[in-house]
């Protein structure tokens, strides 16, 4: 397995991975929503506001993790949110997701990102260092339908102190249907 931190030449394959994976696990409607989200993230987010990580096997994308900037009004820290993430259905349970995230979090540290957040399965994300957050510690940009899925971690030697102020996500993520 090899890891890449650019989407160059892989955009359609990345979109297809997310759409098909979410279709298989959540149904066609969710697959369409996530496929559109990924297309919008890749097509409209400024380069300085997005990191795209992929896992490839034999030249084929088998996993993807997209981090985009989350800005807190009264906090100067560099914060990125993982949303979405997918591993090809037949490759799930084989450590691909954990390896991809370990690689991605290391790359974020190397790029001076101080905090990583995500909104998903707390038990899975705990395996790579994410811990539960309450909304007072990090205000989400939109209301959470599953508050127990709000998790984060410091990417520095400092503990994760509460993030100050309201947050704003990139335009593609600013959709209540996603939250």
Distance between the termini: 31 Å
What level of helicity do the residues show? 25-40%
Structural class by helix and strand composition? alpha+beta
Number of helices: 4
- How can the largest sheet be summarized? 8 strands, mixed
Q: Compute the CA-based radius of gyration.
A: 15 Å
| Unreliable sequence segments | none
Mean residue pLDDT: 95
Shape descriptor: globular
The share of residues in extended strands comes to 25-35%
The sequence of SSEs as H and E is: EHHEEEHEHEEE
Number of strands: 8
Task: Outline the structure in words.
The protein has helices at residues 11-26, 28-44, 96-110, 122-126; strands at residues 2-4, 50-57, 60-72, 79-87, 115-119, 131-132, 150-154, 167-169. With 179 residues, it is α+β, with helices and mostly antiparallel strands. 30% of the residues lie in helices and 27% in strands. The chain is built from four helices and eight strands, in the order βααβββαβαβββ.
């Amino acid at each position: 397995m090899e890891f890449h931190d650019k989407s160059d030449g892989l955009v359609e394959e990345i979109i297809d991975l997310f759409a098909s994976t979410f279709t298989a696990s959540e149904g066609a409607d969710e697959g369409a929503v996530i496929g559109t989200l990924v297309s919008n993230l890749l097509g409209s987010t400024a380069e300085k506001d997005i990191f795209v990580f992929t896992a490839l096997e034999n030249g084929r994308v088998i996993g993807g993790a997209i981090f985009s900037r989350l800005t807190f009004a009264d906090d100067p820290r560099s914060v990125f949110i993982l949303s979405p993430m997918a591993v090809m259905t037949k490759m799930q349970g084989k450590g691909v997701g954990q390896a991809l995230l370990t690689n991605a979090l290391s790359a974020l540290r190397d790029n001076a990102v101080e905090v990583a957040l995500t909104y998903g399965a707390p038990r899975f994300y705990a395996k790579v260092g994410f811990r539960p957050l309450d909304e007072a510690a990090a205000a989400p940009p939109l209301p959470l339908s599953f508050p127990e899925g709000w998790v984060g971690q410091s990417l520095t030697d400092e503990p994760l102190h509460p993030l100050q102020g309201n947050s704003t996500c990139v335009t593609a993520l600013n959709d209540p249907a996603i939250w």
